[in-house]
Records
---
Amino acid sequence: MPLPKEEYLSASWKDGIFANKVVFCTGGAGTICSAQVRALVHLGANACIIGRNVEKTEKVAKDIATARPGAKVIGIGAVDVRKVESLNDAASRCVKELGGIDYVIAGAAGNFLASINQLSANAFKSVIDIDVLGSYNTLKATLPYLVESAKKHSINSDTLKPSPLGTGGRIIFVSATIHYRTMPFQTHVSVAKAGVDALSHSVAIEFGPLGVTSNIIAPGPIGSTEGMDRLLPTDNKEAYVKSQPLGRLGSVRDIADATVYLFADTGSYVSGQTLVVDGASWRMTAGGAAQGALQYPDFLLSGDAVPNVKGQKTSKL
């Protein structure tokens, strides 16, 4: 059964603005990325979502396709973003079955709570490989198609009139705000997301002359997501939500709307930027999700593992 539109897209956008466009999304079966893709599909796009788990990825693809009658959404599982050959094959299949790639969302990521003492070199490398190398491999696999799409949908530099064919040649890297001020138990993610941000900025400079735009969406605390389940101890949720500047967590719709803004005509001159969608959360002086019972520095000095977190992972030194 289709999700109600208000759960993943605001009423601000005109139906059909992404007609005949194709979006390629790594991490597309995740809570946030699937909402981003669902919004684009609702507005006319077809899509290819990439994931590790075959069954989950194919199931989410079928679900996203219910957003619009006639939508084509391919779910490609068993793809390891750390291996560029795997992504090359996925991108080739996307182009073969859907006709091209106009938009890319690099959203595959890994995260868990661990202090540096608890974080092995292998665990650190795993997050760097998924986030940074995975984003780079996603870029490399799709760049030729993005450049082709950008050329096809270029804006007339003299009249500044939007292309009658719509937009194309755009990539969004899904990042975070953790590294803006740093927080305990998130060293691996802070380093990884800083690298992702630097990658996006470089793409904007090197491929801007070819018409490609590259931007970052940095979600803050988004409710009902796998990320919050992993990072927010269950004994601290109510206090954490209350501490937010807007008095609530964000929603996947907030991220989806930001995605539409950057891919639509509204984002035609936006490139090399970071769009933070966090309700001003990162500007608070208190730390992030790892708070409450995890009082700094007492809990850190105790050497104990972080308790009460879904998807808990352990890492041996």
---
Amino acid sequence: MFGTTTLVSKSVVVILILLIVYFLAMDLLLYSRIQRYDVRPTTNGTQYKSVVPCDFDPLCTVTVKGLMLDHPNHFLLSPLAAIMDNLLHISSSWTRLGVILFQARTWLDDLDGHVARKRANIAGERSDVGSNGYIVDGVCDAVGCLALIIGLYQFLVRNSSRRGGYDKLLQLPVSSSIVEPGNGIQKNSNIALRNILLITVHLFLTSATWNRYIYLYQDLLETNYRTPSISRERLYARQTIIIRSLSFWIIVLCWKFVNFHAMMDYLLLAIFFDRMREYVKLVRWSSYVIVLLLVYVTEFHFLRAYTYVRDVSSLIDEQISSTDVFTQG
């Protein structure tokens, strides 16, 4: 039995290593695709040609949400969702199946999003902010997350503070009261509640901020809205400059690793490898510092990008070049 468990653990580690290599390779290919081919339409630009149908190629359509999406969703689950839709023709014929499949969480969440975008003729990963689907998706994510949080709380309450596997879970006698003074279970309960609250607030914070910047950058870099002082061709060129900039890539790469879906993946990995307590100790405070620092940097970058793309500077002083406006410290 022990040998089988060890073999399974080693197999999982090998799979994780292969996935990490795959995700890094896809990041490099995505970066190359954006630098070499058109992101926004231009008159004499070079168009990206996918070797497979665009539905299956996460590099085909460049969007802000795709760039900020976590690696498993962007490079693995979304293409699998597209393949499933292509095999079953859900988006064109099975009009109500999406409601049922949606309950199966993360991968089926990607399938649901793919079907919705396909029906609305939306290319690539995008958030349709304010739509019924956007609201339903958020509510379902919240319900699923809440169920997981409740389960984690029960686990932390029943598990002793000492390191131990799932076979070491504290068995609660029926007659035992968890509110008796000095009861160790009560102490575990209080500690577990504090840790769960920290994790819950952090997940809410990452979800709210991640969605906020997807919406802001999406509205800035994927829109045709422009001021009278800038032509559409120039607007597209400026949007492309921002998307290709190193600063923007650093920011979206950071969000790939700390967004809501990524944090849920880390949490699930900690549960799978029976390292829940170590994970909680590691992230309960540091995670807040990381997210708040990233929010500060992202907000600063967005304001400067907004000034540059919207040509706000030209309304103040038309003598300042647009490049200088964006790059000055």
---
Amino acid sequence: MIDLRSDTVTRPSAAMLDAMMTAETGDDVYRDDPTVQALEAEAARLSGKAAALFFPTGTQANLVALLSHCQRGDEYIVGQQAHNYKYEAGGAAVLGSIQPQPISHAEDGSLPLHEIIAAIKPDDIHFARTRLLSLENTHHGKVLPLSYLEQAWQLTRTHNLALHIDGARIFNAVVAQKIALTDIARYCDTLTICLSKGLGTPVGSLLCGDSAYIETARRWRKMTGGGMRQAGILAAAGLYALQHNVDRLQEDHDNAAWLGEQLRAAGIEVLNQHTNMLFVKVPEAQVNALKAWMTERGVALSVGPVTRIVTHLDVDRTDLTQLVAHWQAFLRQR
């Protein structure tokens, strides 16, 4: 199977599995799992934050991030297409009574600064209290420029807001810009790091911030069911990923760029390509037929009028060459 639906579909390598099976473990709820402690310390070091906390999922890490920043009746400003607004089941509103204030993304994936300012509520009993700006980096594969992050950071300091970055694919942004994670993290109060996307672990995300914030988050993690016991087995995969799978993200970016060129040459409309994601236009009349065609040939695609294709460590240039050949054959028989 050539699976290009997402970079969440990767399977742990033999070396990662070996690290997991030989991991030293304790009980993380009692704070005595040494491998979890090592992973959290490494995430804190890489991000330049004082502390980090390990979670089973990115959705829970984002939820706890919002719960730790906002009280009931508070509000966070967020992108209309952001994961922690649109794709995480409304958890902040349902479980935290936190009101989202979504605004539209600019073409480059950023939230326009003037629209952020316009969305901030006055300090008035009629309104929810605006407490947080949440950004996503990368957003649909698009990297937020450091210059924009600096401006957003200054905006939040002026308006007494916290700034959180949903960094599910933040190392894609790091690699694309040839910078360190600290270069991004200096412009936020908190950030999440997903280990189970491009970094290739089976599960796991991290939340990074200052020590007092992470202690608050630890309580929320327990309350939302994220306290794990011998979690070092999972944390070992995360440590392996941070040590071995960050720099290789450039291969995914290069493969996505190459695939975009090949699809364009085949007459397929590529709408855009950034980092490890391509978005391809598929005529409505071809959607179902293309999906069936690819499935029959062992290719998993989330086919729609706009089809997202995601490269990752479990697909190589040979796999992508096969994808192009299958697509060309599909078009020939239409």
---
Amino acid sequence: MKRNIAVLGATGSIGKSTLDVIASYPDDFDVVLLSAHRDIQKLCSLSTIYPNAKLALTDDSVSLKTNNKNISYWGPEGLLEAIRESGAHIVVNGIAGAAGLLPSLAALESGADVALANKETIVMAGPLAFATAKEHHCRILPVDSEHSAVFQLIEAHGSDTLEEIILTASGGPFRQYSKEKLEQVTLNDALAHPTWNMGGKITIDSASLANKGLEVIEAVRLFHVKPEQVKVLVHPQSYIHSLIRLKEGSLYAQMSRPDMRLPIHNALFWPEVRFCQFGRLDLVGQNLTFEQPREDLFPMLPLAYRAVIAGSGYPIAYNAANEEAVAAFINGMIRFTDIGHVVEQVLQNQWNCDELVVQSILEIDTRSRIAARNEIKEYSR
């Protein structure tokens, strides 16, 4: 029996990789919904390949809506409606940033499994997302290569045997830079990732190690471990995607070429293990190296630990402040090295909350963005 799939962020890197996987298994999946934010041309072109899929565009500008009858749903609210009405069994959430939170919750409320590449869902609202999944008898399956790797390893060995999780990081393009050189990097420098082909925001996050910081928070919540049980190791080749250490001391690693289609494939077919060609790695002639992350020059990583240890609304503030700082860097308002300074200042505020429900989560997100913008004004004077 075919499973109905919705692909959110269909024109982005996760969306494209997902559609590659689906195309390799035409007898297993039906695409029922495709969404994009602004790229209406690419989205509409996908309807010729998937004529039965409804299309949703979250940017509802009047200029886009004029005379366009291919799009069935418009705006952020339209996407939530589309998810509820899609009949999807699996929703792949490849939306970048906090904008992916409400679509994840809508998918879970509809009873669909969520193949999750949007780490902000767990960073901002992990307990709420898991409670929603439990209530509606569905699952959250990680698609990030690191969390997919940990998920597979824990599935193989059992959570009761786990001592620690080791997330690997490529280190980004600046891992060997001096402090002085780091202060001079440009936007183009930050967008030149050495091993992965990703969207702009996540590429900059990788360069600053904010992406790894978000993944630390996500790992704590996904796998129900303490922050001190999650370590980060720089592995520039990006062949080992994560490791776990068992209580008796052994390390187990998941290894493959850096190809997002493999973790997407695993999420779509879980718990079945299917043959596929994506990401296969031949170790002959390969050299694997490992380094400690340079937390003194890349403060976004230690700030993430501070946020997840503080708990409550602090991870929300960390994420929101980083999104605002990255946008300011992209727009030439601050330097690359100011991103961490902005986030650190925002985290100095009080972000405790008695109950993290949708309203309070969004309220903290809004307040922390305002705080970040005020800090950005100071750095951009």
